[in-house]
Amino acid sequence: MMISPGYYIKGFADSSYQELIDERDRLLKSITNFEESEKKGDRSGDEWQISPSPSVRYQCYLEYLAKLCLLMCEKYNQEYVWGNKSLAEDIKDAPNRTKRNT
Fold this sequence. Notes:
The protein is an all-alpha fold. Helices cover 64% and strands 0% of the residues. The chain has one domain (5-95).
């Protein structure tokens, strides 16, 4: 069962911008994988036996991505435009951060 986009995004309210980047990349990977399979007409995988179907998950992931991008915009403005953080500095700390499991 998929959760609503609103509920999904609430789970990231306290996430750092770097964690949001990781989640965005995870969503994009899932979206891209589905699109590549669809372009090939390949529906032979076991994932087609799981509910919700890959096409439903794809649509949900697109909605999640839309909400996530809005949150990323807000977070970027708060932390980097109006705040004193730097993406360059955050990248230096990247090996020390843990990936979010969702």
